[in-house]
Amino acid sequence: MFHIVLYQPEIPANTGNISRTCAATNTVLHLIKPLGFSLDDRHLKRAGLDYWSLLDVRIHASFESFLDSHGRASIWFVETYGERLYNEVRYPEDSFFIFGQETKGLPRELTESFRDRVIRIPMSPRPEARSLNLSNSVAVILFEAMRQNGFPGLR
Questions:
Q1: Res. 137: pLDDT tops 90
Q2: pTM strictly above 0.90
């Protein structure tokens, strides 16, 4: 089983779309507070459709409490400043993929002690194309990890 970790997500529709992807792939969704919305936000629920009952979602008060719960297991930070491409890494099952805020990404101080675990999705070098949509980025990374492991638990 894989884990998607959203660090202080801001946009409810993105989190709703990601929750739907997690439910359809039997992936655990972790949300690290503070959240930029309420969990009963109608936009969040609408984007997740009727998949909420299928979702394993875990809320963490802070990044430190997330680390206290899960240690430094197989943690991967997905960020535009990563030196390694996502497809250059072999992901074991039970990997955690951490994504930052939609407007700011992940703070560098979070990734300092994990430099070898910061990966990126290749993009155009044009400065105005800063990043992909968060829910699209989650899907790219998650499905690569699942592909590498033979799509465990999926038909």
A1: yes
A2: yes
